[in-house]
Design a protein that fits this description.
heterodimer, A: mainly beta, about 55% strand, globular, B: mainly beta, four-stranded antiparallel sheet, 11 strands
């Protein structure tokens, strides 16, 4: 399978809380990216972290990468209703293509 | 820039018919990707092009599927003949310089084969 694994598959929290999603992959990577997909739309790139980086921030997003555990996490702080979407990790495992995970469905309740 | 453009947005057809999906990548992008998304299998890479040349088509499910990129601004994905199990959302994406840089996705084509 070309898929990575994301955990949890679904997450429901209250507005204002923090949301954490995890991603694991199987082989060494050059970089790892996170994408968001709103219902009925295409994927939108959120953030890219390279294999020599451990943490990266972008606005309310914080991404960590642990290459020894082959895992990454995406933290969304102070969640908003507009953050309701599916979130995918995608790893660059070489061969000029990305391997996408199955995604986490995040629901923010008002 | 208008972003990646796909057409049609929705397609409903009957089993056995030919289906052609179209994509216009972002100008200046060297890589173009076709993906298929279903609930059961998630997001699958079907094929990708670099400078209009197909590089990896290992994800194309069967000979019924074919893709072309006659020039830098246009690509097609054709299914002939279509089957109900081809029902899915098909995305086109493009990226610059390297295929593993940020990918920009189109809005997708929702295909329903009856």
């Amino acid at each position: 399978s070309q898929q990575g694994e994301e955990d949890p598959q679904a997450l429901s929290i209250q507005e204002g809380e923090n949301a954490t999603m995890n991603c694991s992959y199987k082989t060494s990577i050059n970089n790892l990216q996170w994408y968001r997909q709103n219902s009925g739309r295409g994927l939108v790139h959120l953030i890219l972290i390279r294999s020599n980086e451990r943490e990266k921030h972008s606005g309310r997003l914080r991404v960590t990468l642990d290459t020894s555990k082959k895992s990454s996490s995406l933290l969304i702080t102070a969640s908003r209703a507009a953050d309701t979407a599916s979130y995918f990790c995608a790893s660059d495992q070489g061969a000029q293509k990305l391997v996408f995970g199955q995604g986490t469905r995040l629901t923010i309740n008002p | 820039d208008a972003g990646v453009i796909q057409s049609p947005r929705h397609e409903v057809t009957e089993m056995g018919q030919e289906v052609t999906l179209r994509c216009k990548p972002i100008s200046g992008h060297d890589y173009l990707f076709w993906y298929r998304q279903t609930m059961m299998r998630g997001l699958e890479l079907l094929i990708y092009f670099n400078n209009n040349v197909p590089i990896d088509d290992s994800g194309m499910p069967e000979d019924r599927f074919s893709a072309k990129m006659p020039n830098a601004s246009f690509s097609t994905l054709k299914i002939q003949p279509s089957e109900p199990r081809d029902s899915a959302v098909y995305f086109c994406a493009s990226s610059t310089r390297q295929g593993t840089d940020t990918q920009y996705f189109g809005p997708g084509t929702r295909l329903t084969v009856l």
